[in-house]
Amino acid sequence: MGRICLQGIPRGYGRHGLKTILLAADIYEHGPEGYTQEWESEKSILLLQESLIRLGHSVFLLERPKQVAEFILEYLKGKPREDLIVFNLVEGYQSRNREGYIPSLCEYLGVSYTGSDTYAQAVCLDKHLLKLICKDLDILTPKSRRLTNTSRTINGLKFPLFIKPNGEGSSLGINEESILHSNFDFERVSDKLFGKYDTLLLEEFIPGEDITIGLLGHSDHYQLTDPARISYSGTTYSEQIKSKSGMPEILNFDLPDGIAEHLKQVSLKIANHLKIIGPARFDFRWQGEEIYFLELNLTPGLSKVYSTLPMCWENSGRSYEEMLKLILISAQERFENSSEQHYGKGIPLYE
């Protein structure tokens, strides 16, 4: 996009002052069809950019990998690295490493970035691996198995089953056919999915309601949103329901206090174990007295138009700009205090 230069790169504003923010983004309208459902719309990104500018920061929006890398390197030639924050809205596609592109680049070059690190991103993108970790933490999650094209058996799981890509978000690959009632369904639907995805997750289907809760902040300073019960048409929270033009699903903030508190405790348990940094969104299934953990998204949608996390945050009595400010504060806290950034900050780039 041609929105690089706003007012020139400023010289330092100091530790707690204004920042230069590189908004690194995949833009939904500019990507290849069929792979961009997780990407934010151009309208949403521009609204986010405007909010950051209202907070007083200088914001540069770039969407090409080469542009992002060159911007960082050029900045570090003569500007204080502590005054730059890379705001990560890069999702990529197909690669299991895709949500770690920006964290890895920034950690290597010794600059601040928003959101969780590469390790947490990779673990959470692999839904099956995260479920194994949750089982070790005694967190209830549906029985499941990971499928590949050479290992695709039900192996003791009981119908009805639910099948979805193991490494995608935004309900990619999920539709009304995702609930399986027979071996015939399993063979037919898995054949379709393996035509596009390398690994699938097969789990026992839990009837009930979808629940979501958001998390901001960093370890010892986490802030949770109000949890929401999600209502939508149809039997699955499918790719077709999730729209870039609006939000056809309804968020209901009416959970019993005991259920809401349980959701918060489970979310904090996972967050502390993985040492994640917000923004994050946890998804659960509620059936009777049981809460089943489903997945954790560490690059959740931040759109004011269609994303659940900002809506849950604002229902908790806080503004969209406050959410963005907290995301930036968490990024800066890691940059200043975390050992994982010591290497990048300690190696001179230019001598």
From TrEMBL:
Residues 131-329 form the ATP-grasp domain. GO terms for biological process: cell wall organization. InterPro entries: ATP-grasp, ATP_grasp_subdomain_1, Dala_Dala_lig_C, PreATP-grasp_dom_sf. PROSITE patterns: ATP_GRASP (PS50975). Keywords: ATP-binding, Cell wall biogenesis/degradation, Ligase, Nucleotide-binding. PANTHER family: D-ALANINE--D-ALANINE LIGASE, D-ALANINE--D-ALANINE LIGASE B. Belongs to the D-alanine--D-alanine ligase family. This is D-alanine--D-alanine ligase.
